[in-house]
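Format notes (please read before filing issues)

Several people have asked whether sequences and structure tokens are stored in separate files. They are not. Every record keeps both together, in the order shown below: the sequence lines, then the token lines. Line labels are part of the format and must not be stripped during preprocessing.
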Amino acid sequence: IEKRITAEACIHHLWFTDADYEAKGTHIKWNPAVKTAEDREAIRAGILNGRIDVVATDHAPHTAEEKNNAYFQAPSGGPLVQHGLPAMLELVHQGVLSVEEVVNLMAHRVADLFDIEGRGYIRAGYQADLVLVDPNDRWTVNKSNILYKCGWSPFEGTAFKSRVRGTWVNGIQVYDGERVLTDHGNHAGQRLTFNR
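Then the structure lines:
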């Protein structure tokens, strides 16, 4: 049977389970909700068998004050852009995924499915959207290294084995491994164009 739909999984559903609610509370409240370890394994299996096409961050940087509300008052979502790739690479270290699968899930397939012009690959004529990763640089997420304006992360206290050492957008370095670079003159970002 030919596949006629596309499906996305979010990083938090690949990482957290309902067992994490006791420690993390509403900081891991999303829609749909984080469920059991069995559900997490089913999502991982869906990625490995091709039923799930891409992985996204679902980045929603609500403030800590908003997230600290009672369950029904706290908004769903959380900040994940900064820690999305390290979390996915941790799944590589755990043997869940390969580096190639992470690249396909987070770059190639996204560009292909949305038919984004000049993005998603390192190719002549494409925009130089790149990330430099040290796959063996252990670090722990804490308040001092969180770059989100909202000032918190559901990954606080998590130790990752891989660290992003640089990010380039359209060939312009925008992150140097410690801070976001804003002194490059023109804004590096550009609108996406689609071949549709």
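For reference, the curators noted about this record: The longest strand covers residues 163-169. The helical segments are 11-15, 21-24, 37-48, 64-67, 81-93, 99-113.
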